[in-house]
């Protein structure tokens, strides 16, 4: 009914030649107050009457323009209606529509929710229509090889409209949103573009507009990168010096030495994205980090670990990174990687570091490194000669030094340790019944000197530690006591049981049971670890150990152990049963000694009898005593401590000569016992080097003083020493993530210059990886909100806010990706058998071999052969976008977003508001699609409120378009709402300037 009235009014207006103002007055009499003309298809009615004949009616088109200006009709409705016009043979009508578009296209806006719903589709339809017009003209030229004046003018106008669309960021962003609504329809636009391109090529036609082909391509393949985005990077190029790679690797090697290569690759890829590093720069930073860390360590264990990491793990990290970052179809030389050569060139500029490493390792470290890398085709012989020549003068000086003053190079031992490791694994995999004596000799030889440390380090970085552990467990299982076995066979079996048990216990102490054992292993050793072995940060209940004991076995053991040495007799109780029932024995001894029913001499006799059986028994007894000490009062510690000290008393010379291989087993058992004791009751001056592997929670020095001391070292060096990382890990456990994070952020706030802030932020970011998930949650829920709210304007202002926002974003990205990769690793572990490291060869790649004849074929899934790439599944996963957030991390992000909403309950621009803007902008800029799950948590009105407070010059359409998941209707709706608000604010700002 209303449409008929509108049509009649148009007829009257045309007959009486109404002016625009007359039209406006009269059409308002027809439309109800407050109702848009779109409800009654006003745009459709006007265009129907304007385009009846072969020529458009300019007067009626003016009525449409006036209706647009008076907001009687929406731009969306008009564009949608124009796009429906299909009479392309009416050149003058098409030309008039193009002229009309030329006059209104730059003013397109959106004012209501109804308009927002249809505008993206309308812009897509208009783009398709413009493509059709252009395609019609090019097709005509392809056939007739000429254009008349009307067609030339139409082409020029079409190009002009297309150019205005391209240069209008609001229209381009709306088109970008619209192309996600109906991908199939948008695909037709690309087909039309392909047809236009073919016509232009076939006809050799060059439009007068110079950039029209580029514009058409942008319309057909609109991308988020076509949308402007104000970047917050202080340095648009990668920073000249980075401080996060070395600390990050230090933390990872300290906490996760057993992780496969893909874990480190994922971390380095994250750094590469955040820092915008090229492959060359990233490779240089990784190699340099290895050298810096190796130059600092003094302890043999970490010396061998970092040496093995630098020489064995780093090449594999580089190869995987190069394979992941290589463009599809890119050809690279077969015998070297160009980026590695460029990275070594950069490394040679750091002469002080290389000179120190040459001196420490007693060799030309570059030549030594590259000689090994030639076997893996990272460099070739020509490069080795070239780089060695550049370091020749330093090598000559080293050779002139007094040979007696040169320490033997740990690097030589590390490289040589790979062959013994393969030999040990090969021997362990041989039939146990055939090689018992040879196996005992091999395992005892491993315990001589620091060979065990070397082999463990190489096995760890090569990913063969779990294979080593699983085969040691099998050896221990095979060595369990057989009833009735006597003589030499029994002695060999018992010694094998003892050696394998001690080696396994030492490995679990060093790396943690979670890292080296399966969750549900049913072997004797795995059961003992789960139920009886005390581990750092994994306390055991001594009462549970006692309850598990068999009373009959405990009584028999007490009776037998209480006798003098000369009266000891062989018992039918197996070694493994003794290990499990010693807690009951020691508990009874402690009670009897406390009640004075046993004298000190009796207690000593029992302990001596335990010691002289197997050294494993001393370890099992100590584990119970340490657990017991954790559950009693301070005044009850003396007796269990005395018992442990008795186990550490050296045996007599006669006892030392009575058993074979006693020295190596005794030394290893002493290390294990001291480490257990130190974890419970740390001593001021520990005697064993194994004790210094970790810093304990118990200390007489206040936490703040410890932190200040360690931070002073880190800040002065500009990198993270191993010892500092250990202390910081202990401070994290002692003070909690919120305490440590607060202390670290305080150090950032003390900096006065941007360079110092960014340096400190990088180091802090790496340190937070001691537990990135917990630290990120503390950062978002406790530390940053309190700092911003309580200390704004005091010592927190720009650029401190920018650095804090960047740190928060870095931590969120890392926490999300760490969770993503851990889920993947967990799925891989669950899909394997216990010894899957050397069985699952279909989805793994082969390890390089230094000596083919002596190498063991068992390897982990993370090693690369010379011509092979790592698992395609792994490669794809590293590129995937994370698809799950940990619940606690999600809650933390939602919490800080709620805090942001409180900041935005104002119309004044403040530092709090600017922090919100920087946080959101950096989240998009640094995380891109990989933080989509985080962006999906943004509250509905957060960006809307932020737009109302911030200047529109800083919040660009590129940022808004990247914030939302346009694959969903909710995401598109939120995006177009914010874009429309941005457009209206922009127009308002422009009108004020006018």
Describe the overall structure.
Pfam families: Med24_N. The protein contains 49 helices and no strands. By secondary structure, the protein is mainly alpha-helical. The protein starts with a helix and ends with a helix.
What key phrases describe this protein's structure?
single chain, 994 residues, mainly alpha
What order do the helices and strands come in, and which of them pair?
Elements: H1 2-16, H2 20-30, H3 42-50, H4 58-69, H5 75-82, H6 91-104, H7 113-144, H8 149-167, H9 169-178, H10 183-203, H11 212-220, H12 245-255, H13 261-275, H14 279-296, H15 300-325, H16 338-348, H17 351-361, H18 365-374, H19 381-390, H20 392-400, H21 410-416, H22 418-428, H23 436-446, H24 451-461, H25 465-478, H26 487-511, H27 513-516, H28 524-531, H29 542-548, H30 551-561, H31 575-594, H32 600-613, H33 615-629, H34 638-647, H35 653-658, H36 662-680, H37 703-717, H38 722-735, H39 737-750, H40 754-767, H41 772-791, H42 800-830, H43 872-879, H44 887-903, H45 911-927, H46 932-935, H47 942-949, H48 957-963, H49 969-993
Helix pairs in contact: 1-2, 1-3, 2-4, 3-4, 5-7, 6-8, 7-8, 7-9, 7-10, 7-49, 8-11, 9-49, 10-11, 12-14, 12-40, 13-15, 13-42, 14-15, 14-16, 14-17, 15-21, 15-24, 18-19, 23-26, 25-26, 26-36, 29-31, 30-31, 31-33, 32-33, 33-34, 33-36, 37-38, 38-39, 39-40, 39-41, 40-42, 41-42, 41-44, 42-45, ...
């Amino acid at each position: 009914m209303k449409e008929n009235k509108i049509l009649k009014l148009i007829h009257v207006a045309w007959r009486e030649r109404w002016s625009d103002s007359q039209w406006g007055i009269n059409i308002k009499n027809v439309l109800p107050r407050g109702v848009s003309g779109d409800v009654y298809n006003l745009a459709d009615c006007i265009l129907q009457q304007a385009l009846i004949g072969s020529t458009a009616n300019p007067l009626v088109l003016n009525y449409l323009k006036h209706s647009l200006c008076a907001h009687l009709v929406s731009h969306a409705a008009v564009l949608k209606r124009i796009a429906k016009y299909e009479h392309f043979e009416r050149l003058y009508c098409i030309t008039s529509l193009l002229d009309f578009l030329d006059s209104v296209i730059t003013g397109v806006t959106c004012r209501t929710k109804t308009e927002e719903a249809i505008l993206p589709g309308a812009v897509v339809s208009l783009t398709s229509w413009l493509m059709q017009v252009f395609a019609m003209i090019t097709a005509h030229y392809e056939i007739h090889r000429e254009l008349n004046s009307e067609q030339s003018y139409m082409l020029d106008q079409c190009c002009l409209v297309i150019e205005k669309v391209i240069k209008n960021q609001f229209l381009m962003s709306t088109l970008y949103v619209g192309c996600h609504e109906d991908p199939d329809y948008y695909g037709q636009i690309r087909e039309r573009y392909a047809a236009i391109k073919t016509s232009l090529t076939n006809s050799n036609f060059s439009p007068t507009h110079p950039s029209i082909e580029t514009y058409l391509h942008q319309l057909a393949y609109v991308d988020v990168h076509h949308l402007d985005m104000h970047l917050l990077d202080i340095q648009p190029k990668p920073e000249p010096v980075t401080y996060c790679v070395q600390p990050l690797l230090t933390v990872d090697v300290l906490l996760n030495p057993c992780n496969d290569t893909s874990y480190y690759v994922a971390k380095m890829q994250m750094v590469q994205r955040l820092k915008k590093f090229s492959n060359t720069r990233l490779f240089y930073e990784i190699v340099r980090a290895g050298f810096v860390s190796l130059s600092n360590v003094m302890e043999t264990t970490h010396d061998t670990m970092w040496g093995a990491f630098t020489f064995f793990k780093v090449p594999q990290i580089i190869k995987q990174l190069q394979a992941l970052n290589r463009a599809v179809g890119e050809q690279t030389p077969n015998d070297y990687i160009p980026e590695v050569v460029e990275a070594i060139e950069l490394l040679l500029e750091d002469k002080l570091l290389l000179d120190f490493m040459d001196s420490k390792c007693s060799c030309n470290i570059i030549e030594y490194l590259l000689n090994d890398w030639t076997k893996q085709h990272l460099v070739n012989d020509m490069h080795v000669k070239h780089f060695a020549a550049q370091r020749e003068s330093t090598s000559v000086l080293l050779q002139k030094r007094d040979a007696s003053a040169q320490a033997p190079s740990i690097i030589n031992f590390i490289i040589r340790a790979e062959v013994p490791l393969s030999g040990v694994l090969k021997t362990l995999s041989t039939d146990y019944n055939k090689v018992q004596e040879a196996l005992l000799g091999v395992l005892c030889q491993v315990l001589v000197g620091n060979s065990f440390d070397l082999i463990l380090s190489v096995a760890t970085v090569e990913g063969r530690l779990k294979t080593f552990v699983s085969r040691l467990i099998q050896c221990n299982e095979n060595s369990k006591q057989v009833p009735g076995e006597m003589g030499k066979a029994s002695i060999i079996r018992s010694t094998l049981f003892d050696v394998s048990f001690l080696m396994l216990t030492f490995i679990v102490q060093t790396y943690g049971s979670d890292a080296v054992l399966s969750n549900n292993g049913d072997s004797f050793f795995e059961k003992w670890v789960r139920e009886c072995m005390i581990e750092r940060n994994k306390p055991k209940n001594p009462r549970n150990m006692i309850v598990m004991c068999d009373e009959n076995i405990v009584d028999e053991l007490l009776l037998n152990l209480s006798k003098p040495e000369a009266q000891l007799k062989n018992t039918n109780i197996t070694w493994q049963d003794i290990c499990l029932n010693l807690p009951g024995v020691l508990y009874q001894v402690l009670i009897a000694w406390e009640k004075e029913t046993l004298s000190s001499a009796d207690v000593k006799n029992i302990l001596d009898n335990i010691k002289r059986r197997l050294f494993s028994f001393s370890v099992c007894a100590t584990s119970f005593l340490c657990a017991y000490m954790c559950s009693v009062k301070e005044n009850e510690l003396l007796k269990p401590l005395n018992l442990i000290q008795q186990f550490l008393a050296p045996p007599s010379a006669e006892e030392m000569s009575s058993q074979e291989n006693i020295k190596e087993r005794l030394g290893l058992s002493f290390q294990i016992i001291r480490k257990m004791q130190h974890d419970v009751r740390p001593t001021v001056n520990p005697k064993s080097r194994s004790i210094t592997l970790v810093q304990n929670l118990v200390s007489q020095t206040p936490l703040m003083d410890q932190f200040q001391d360690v931070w002073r070292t880190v800040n002065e060096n500009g990198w993270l020493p191993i010892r500092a990382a250990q202390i910081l890990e202990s401070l994290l456990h002692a003070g909690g993530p919120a305490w440590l994070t607060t202390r670290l952020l305080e150090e950032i706030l003390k900096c006065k210059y941007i360079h110092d802030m960014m340096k400190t932020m990088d180091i802090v970011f790496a340190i937070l990886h001691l537990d990135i998930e917990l630290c990120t949650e503390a950062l978002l829920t406790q530390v940053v909100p309190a700092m911003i709210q309580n200390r704004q304007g005091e010592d927190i202002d720009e650029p401190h806010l920018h650095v804090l926002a960047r740190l928060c974003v870095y931590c969120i990205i890392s926490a999300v990706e760490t969770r993503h990769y851990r889920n993947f690793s967990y799925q891989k572990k669950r899909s394997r058998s216990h010894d899957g490291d050397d069985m699952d060869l279909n989805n793994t790649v082969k390890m390089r071999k230094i000596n083919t004849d002596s190498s063991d074929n068992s390897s982990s899934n993370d090693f690369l052969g010379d011509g092979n790439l790592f698992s395609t599944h792994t490669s794809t996963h590293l590129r995937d976008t994370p698809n799950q957030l940990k619940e606690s991390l999600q809650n933390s992000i939602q919490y800080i977003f709620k805090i942001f909403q409180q900041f935005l309950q104002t119309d004044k621009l403040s530092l709090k508001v600017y922090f919100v803007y920087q946080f959101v902008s950096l989240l998009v800029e640094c995380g891109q699609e990989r933080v989509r799950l985080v962006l999906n948590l943004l509250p509905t009105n957060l960006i809307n409120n932020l737009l109302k407070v911030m200047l529109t010059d800083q919040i660009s359409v590129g940022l808004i378009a990247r914030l939302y998941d346009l694959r969903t209707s909710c995401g598109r709706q939120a995006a177009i709402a914010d874009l429309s608000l941005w457009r209206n604010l922009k127009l308002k700002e422009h009108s004020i300037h006018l």
